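Q: Study each token:
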Amino acid sequence: MTSRDTTAATERACLDDSAAPTMRVFIFGITGRVGRLLATRLRTRGAIVSGLSRSSLPDSALEAEGMTTVTGELGAATTSDITAMISDSDVVVFAAGSNAGAQSVTDDIDDAALRRVSDSVATTPRKRLILLSVMPEAWRERQLSDDEEHYFAVKKRAEIALTRQPIDWVILRPSLLTDGPGQGTVALGPAEFHDEIARDDVAAVLEALILEPAISRRILELNNGPTTITEAVGRIARAYQA
């Protein structure tokens, strides 16, 4: 067994000790790369996982793993529609986004849709909303297009709006996302350097945050680093409880 395998096994064992098998999680962006990884992780530990799919048909791969997908367009979903989707959920994860696409899509998804989701969470007690966002420093080493500049401005505006909601929220800002294998170790805190991090590690951190209700109303930045995910999230929880 490699050191990476050992770290991953330790992470799973530690998280399993604190898992809530009956936890219900709804993921906006469940068919995206991070959303799908997160959904699989949560389902493996026995959580009830559902999410919104843009396809006209339920996602067969996710359904085969025991998850439920609701079909529809997030940009067109009303607050009432969203409230119905998340009515039975304990935690809502917003991992959807335009990825710096057309400005109209960024406005519809990263701003307006997130506002409707947070409004829906605000109407239902004891729900948590976890937002997968972006580091403000991302892509600053290159010349950005107008669409990309607009994307970062909207992401910031959306974060501000969320932090002003009277709900239990967490914002996670990862470094540049990659598709390589997860390392199982990270740097997590209120401010971190911008580099890159595997989507699998991002999904693992989201999983750990979902299972750690003590972390609330905090913005956290995430980069590659030397600390195991369980310890990194635990340190944050202990620091805010002190």
